[in-house]
Amino acid sequence: MDRRIKIRHLQALTEIIRQGSLKRAAERLYLTQPAISRTLAELEEIVGAELLNRGRGGVTLTAQGEFFHRYAQASLSALEQGLAGIDEAGRAGALQLRLGALPSVAARLMPEVATEIAAEAPQLRLVIVDGPHGYLTGQLRGGALDMVIGRLGAPDTMRGLRFTQLYLEQVAVVVRPGHPILADPDLRRIGDWPVIYPSPGSAIRPFVERLLIAEGIAPPQQRIETVSGAFGRALVPDSDAVWFISAGVVAREVAAGRLVRLPVATGLTEGPVGMMTRADSTDGPAQQLFMQAVGRVLDRLELS
């Protein structure tokens, strides 16, 4: 949009049409008639077209004016709604969003998003609940949560929910630095050590099973089934356990060298991560502010 167009230009045009007269519009906007005429002339110069037909009977829109007036009205209406929403939020106190975050998102994305919101939308209070996919989607479906952010689940877990994809993520296989498997990083060797394996019902379990089937590997007998990031971070650095977990859960540990990702192909585990809301819900100011913050963080992390 041409940055020379100001709100006063849109207000002048819409009020002139509403009143049918420059004089009455000037009175409504507390302007002189020469001032509103100059404002209208500025707008016509900016858009490069005459917007009004002026005559003794008053003013009417030209064809170009009719087209532009429709969008000017919509812009002012949207601005008024936004100001009303801010005013309402101020009267009611801070906006609040009850958010469910699956482990990969809670560890990788949410610290960045929380920092972004604190800087850009301090009126938004986040209530963050983490947990497995089935639990969080159940809370969302029942109304205890407003949104859930995480991996797209199996069709039966997504009943009554709407999913908006944000980015794609793989499952990582990670171990401590110096682990014996690093000398020969072959997935067929994982059975030689304890394995932290995704629990039944977790969003990543089918992806890990698909990977092992494709490699001709049976599920490890010596396994602990969990998607708890806290448990894995406590056990793996001080043991020989091999951990299957969403890459986002351990992104910081891998970047810092506290954990090592096995150099094995895990493309078959790639799946969409996104926002889940109830299918019958509409996004309010809190959801919109949150999604704007998420978008800025994704751009910064180059995940989108």
Automatic annotation (TrEMBL):
Which domain of life, per UniProt? Answer: Bacteria
UniProt keywords (A-Z) are:
DNA-binding, Transcription, Transcription regulation
HTH lysR-type domain sequence ranges? 5-62
The record's listing under PROSITE patterns reads: HTH_LYSR (PS50931)
Q: Which SUPFAM superfamilies match?
A: Periplasmic binding protein-like II (SSF53850), Winged helix' DNA-binding domain (SSF46785)
Name the residues that span the membrane.
none
Q: Which InterPro entries match?
A: HTH-type_LysR_regulators, LysR_HTH_N, LysR_subst-bd, TF_PcaQ, WH-like_DNA-bd_sf, WH_DNA-bd_sf
The answer to keyword Transmembrane helix applying to this record is: no
Cite the NCBIfam families for this sequence. TF_pcaQ
Protein family membership: Belongs to the LysR transcriptional regulatory family.
This protein is called what? Pca operon transcription factor PcaQ
Q: Which organism is it from?
A: Paracoccus spongiarum
This protein's encoding gene: pcaQ
